[in-house]
Write a structure and sequence with these properties.
Layout (H helix, E strand, L loop, with lengths): L2 E6 L10 H20 L2 E8 L4 H10 L3 H18 L6 E4 L3 H16 L3 E11 L4 E2 L5 E4 L8 E2 L16 E5 L7 E10 L5 H7 L7 H12 L5 E2 L1 E3 L13 E3 L1 H20 L3 H5 L6 E7 L3 H14 L7 E5 L2 E3 L14 H7 L2 H11 L7 E3 L1 H31 L10 H8 L2 H10 L2 H21 L2 H4 L6 H22 L4 H11 L30 H11 L16 H5 L3 E11 L7 E7 L2 E7 L7 H4 L3 E5 L5 E3 L2 E3 L2 E2 L1 E5 L2 E4 L11 E2 L1
Parallel strand pairs: 1-2, 1-13, 2-3, 13-14, 15-16
Antiparallel strand pairs: 4-5, 4-9, 6-7, 6-8, 9-10, 11-12, 17-18, 17-20, 17-26, 18-19, 20-23, 21-22, 24-25
The structure holds one RNA strand.
RNA sequence: GGCUACGUAGCUCAGUGGGUAAGAGCACAGCACUCAUAAUGCUGGGGUCGUUGGUUCGAGUCCAACCGUAGCUACCA
């Protein structure tokens, strides 16, 4: 049995979890769940990355303490990740006593081993804010192409790279003031001492070849000292024996992996040293995005090596996420937060889609809504869930949900089991795209089997009862095998399937032994199809209101157009649920002297009892519309994206039913 | 600008050390079926493999240049 410690990169304490974080967290979670299901000892750790200038300034802007700020975000992050079934042993924070202790211990080791030195650095300084400015926080005209408002490291317009001091008319983004050059002592880690170690380490199977090729550039152009200190004010850990120097956030961030683990060791009984001291046969795996390879595959192993810890077993690097072919955009509604996603769509659909797209390469992954809809509906609902759905009834009706004592075609069951070894390999490599393809091709075979031994025909024939039961038994067993294979990817769907199978939680080796002579649970719908409308709502809700683009002429209406709409104040006389409608409430409205019935899609946000007596605004001359539940004679106005965020428009006190609104 | 990757049917991808006539799933069209969430089964159309040039008896595969996309470029994290 392997003993494996796994980490995903630390989300920064400066914003919500979004599709990008989820790609990595889900990828890692799938890998970990596979290892556990397979029978290995595997632990998954993460944390919020709390330090740095950005969190410090955000807290200040929000008017709360830094501790309050990061603790709020951490709570939110944990909640979001749990909704997507991401199951960490511990989700900690880099701003923790364990991390401070480890960071200082490691620093002192580096110092003791002669890898730390100091040097004077002159850097742009915002004297009104009394803050040294990272290149990112200085903007000005590009020295090459003259483009306005470019950051201090490279130009977004022409791609030039330069130093912040080269910018024309530089200004601090914090105060708009002109920065001045100021000198200060910085602490450096002498990375060059580890050149030959890193050359060896990066080419010994710890990273894929494409990643090590990229790292060659760093190694061959000569490793420079790494600046690991920042001047006060800075949010981080203070460097021992200094009064105003702090550790750069990227020094303590990866140490946060260890700290999160140590914090958990203290309550779980697992030995910290088993995983972090050299000479053990345990494994450490980091999952990261391609943007932070240098920190994890150069700085981090060198720091570990120098301070007497073991180095990672493997660094798994993934690409970036784009949405419909473009970078996520707040104004287009493609900057999708975890919370918004889970409001409109089943989080597990994202797990499946990501799994279907993830390979071990650093290629970017495009979240294409059309592809997403098609894959989830066609694969999970049309193929997989369809199998029990088409057999369960026959077993329930004729056989009291009892499986037969033998399989009609054991060879087919064995064929499914024979994929086990190759699927293991694919999971281990992180090629879940191929796992999904392999499993879906098996699901096709299961459906073909049913089509060529049609239960609905057997059910009509006298004396074919045994054959019918056997056919359905095999189909259910094929489904069960597929559940085992997909369990790391869609654990919640498989859990519902386990309830139907009326069996213990499935384990990897269950694919070898069929479930026979066994009573199934009641079959319930295992998964719902995705409706395009849900996606539309998700995009709408993700659009930031402040990012609304100005209307074009064609979208504008005249005052005459507007006057055609008869808006009236109405009093809600009665409100009640509509049977069979998930989102509708039936409202009885008093508009002036008349009464009318309006169906409003506000059930997810309002309790009918609380609506009685309330005044709202209604479109009074809307053509009545026949619905399944009755005729709706108007429309009440409300704001918001939907779900629990619907806000009825009400007049101020004093307005009377029937009054015109204009 | 430099570096590392990527570019194959409408979409997502597979194409082993260059070698039969470029594959799969989805989407689309036709047929069949009606157990199943308009699910399933069978059949079919669709590609100058980013562009140009080169190496070779032979190139999607190797080389070069160019175009496009992404990331990095050590002080964003």
């Amino acid at each position: 049995m392997r003993r494996i410690l796994v980490t995903a990169a630390l989300p920064y304490s400066n914003g919500s979890i979004h599709l990008g974080h989820l790609l990595e967290q889900i990828q890692t979670d799938i890998w970990v769940r596979f290892q556990k299901l397979y029978g290995n000892e595997c632990y998954y750790f993460c944390a919020d990355d709390a330090h740095g200038t950005a969190t410090m300034l955000s807290a200040e802007e929000a008017g709360v303490s830094k501790e309050e700020w990061i603790s709020r975000l951490r709570e939110e992050h944990i909640k979001d990740l749990q909704a997507f079934g991401v199951d960490h042993e511990n989700y900690y924070s880099t701003h923790s006593p364990e991390n401070e202790k480890l960071t200082q211990e490691i620093y002192l080791k580096l110092l003791e081993n002669g890898a730390i030195f100091t040097d004077e650095v002159s850097q742009l300084y915002d004297s009104s804010k009394e803050l040294f400015l990272a290149d990112r926080y200085v903007r000005g005209k590009c020295p090459r192409c003259g483009a306005e408002d470019q950051p201090g490291d490279n130009c977004d317009m022409c791609g030039a790279t330069y130093a912040a001091t080269d910018l024309i008319e530089p200004r601090s983004v914090h105060s708009d003031s002109k920065p001045v050059l100021k000198s200060s002592t910085h602490y450096f880690f002498d990375l060059a001492q580890f050149t030959s170690f890193l050359r060896e380490w990066t080419t010994s199977g710890t990273v894929r070849e494409d990643v090590s090729n990229k790292l060659k550039e760093w190694l061959e152009s000569g490793l420079k000292p790494w600046d690991i200190s920042r001047d006060a004010p800075y949010f981080g850990f203070q460097i021992p024996e200094t009064s105003n120097k702090y550790f750069y956030v990227w020094l303590d961030a990866p140490i946060g992996y260890m700290a999160s683990f140590r914090n958990w060791c203290d309550r779980s009984g697992v030995e910290f040293d088993d995983f972090w001291k050299p000479g053990n046969d345990t494994e450490v795996h980091h999952f990261i995005g391609k943007d932070i390879v240098n920190f994890h595959a150069l700085f981090w192993p060198a720091v570990l090596k120098c301070s007497g810890f073991r180095t990672p077993t493997r660094i798994h690097v993934h690409g970036y996420i784009t949405v419909d072919g473009e970078k996520m955009s707040k104004s287009k509604g493609t900057f999708i937060k975890a919370e918004t996603y889970s409001e409109f769509l089943d989080p597990e659909t994202l797990r499946y889609y990501y799994a279907a797209r993830l390979t071990p390469t650093i290629n970017d992954i495009d979240f294409s809504f059309a592809d997403f809809l098609a894959r989830v509906n066609s694969d999970l609902v049309g193929k997989l869930v369809n199998i029990p759905s088409r057999c369960a009834n026959f077993l329930a009706r004729g056989f009291d949900s009892q499986l037969s004592t033998e399989l009609s075609e054991p060879s087919l069951f064995e064929e499914f089991a024979a994929s086990k070894a190759s699927i293991e390999q694919l999971y281990e490599l992180g090629d879940t795209a191929q796992v999904v393809r392999a499993v879906m091709s098996l699901a096709d075979k299961a459906n073909q089997y049913i089509a060529s031994n049609p239960p609905w025909e057997l059910a009509k024939q006298e004396g074919k009862e045994q054959e019918l039961q056997n056919t359905c038994t095999l189909a259910i067993n094929l489904f069960r095998t597929l559940c085992v294979y997909l369990k790391p990817i869609v654990p919640m769907l498989v859990e519902r399937s386990e309830q139907f199978l009326n069996s213990e939680p499935l384990t990897w080796n269950d694919v070898d032994e069929p479930l026979l002579d066994h009573r199934l649970g009641k079959f319930k719908r295992l998964m719902n199809r995705i409706d395009q409308k849900q996606i539309d709502k998700l995009i709408e809700a993700s659009k930031e209101t402040s990012a609304i683009e100005p209307e074009s002429d064609e979208d504008q209406i005249t005052i005459e157009d507007f006057q055609k709409i008869d808006l009236r104040v109405a009093e809600i006389l009665d409100a009640r649920f509509v049977d069979g409608a998930d989102s509708l409430l039936e409202l009885k409205l008093k508009v002036g002297t008349g009464e009318r019935i309006v169906f409003a899609g506000i059930r997810t946000a309002y309790d009918p009892e609380k609506l009685k007596g309330r005044h709202v605004v209604v479109v009074a001359n809307l053509k009545p519309r026949k619905m399944r539940f009755g005729t709706s004679e108007g429309m009440v106005l409300a704001a918001g994206p939907g779900g629990s965020d619907i806000f009825l428009v009400s007049p101020d006190d004093g307005a009377l039913s029937g009054m015109e609104v204009r």
